[in-house]
Amino acid sequence: MIKWLLFDKDGTLIQFDQSWVKLGIQLVDDVCAHFEIDQREAVYDAIGIDGDAFRPNSVMASGSLEEMATIFNQYTDIETYTWVCMRSQQLINTRVPESKLYPGVHETLMKLHTCGYQLAIVTGDNARGVSHFLEQTGLQDLFACVISTNGDNYEKPDKRLLTPLWSRGVKAEEMAIIGDTDLDMQTGRQAQCAKTIGVRTGLGHEATFDEADLILDDVTQLLEYL
């Protein structure tokens, strides 16, 4: 029986935050500068940056920092992952987030909460970004657990990211994860969640959702499904 609903934030609950695009491009530029990578345009192409946007289904659009570092490593003899993680967190700490809920999301979350579901956020954003989101949207009282990535935590799709839930005694068969990327679905699979649910908002228009048990147009359709 599903008791916990684990929501991704950007692209799932709120419209995709363009500040992430600027941050991502800045990170690639900083990596190229720090490791003296001259083939910046080749790195852009390999990682999925087209002009001032992310190419659908690319590592830049929905991959992990580890996958990004693997690409950077092809252009340098030095392992880049540790530095990429550090610089990524520095940039995230300076980000000014945008938090515009998709239509109907607030009402849907309220109804789910009223129905007795425990709601959680599982995001690659840091605690500051999540706090800003909760304050802007007025959803502070709805989420029983908030899991963010703060530079010292695991990242999607590593199931250890859900340790705060395991420590509460929450079982995998009690959880459903909802997100707009294949990375979200992989997180649910690795954690053996009861259901992995993809939504065609945010980056969900380009996701394959091969590992999704269910694909919805948006979060508001959860009510009918549950």
From TrEMBL:
InterPro entries: HAD-like_hydrolase_sf, HAD-like_sf, HAD_2, HAD_sf, PGP-like_dom2. The keyword Glycosyltransferase does not apply. GO terms for molecular function: phosphoglycolate phosphatase activity. It comes from the Bacteria. Pfam families: HAD_2. Keywords: Hydrolase. Gene3D superfamilies: HAD superfamily/HAD-like (3.40.50.1000), Putative phosphatase, domain 2 (1.10.150.240). Coiled coil: none annotated. GO terms for cellular component: cytosol. One of its GO terms (biological process) is DNA repair. This is HAD family hydrolase. It comes from Staphylococcus rostri. The lineage of its organism: Bacteria, Bacillati, Bacillota, Bacilli, Bacillales.
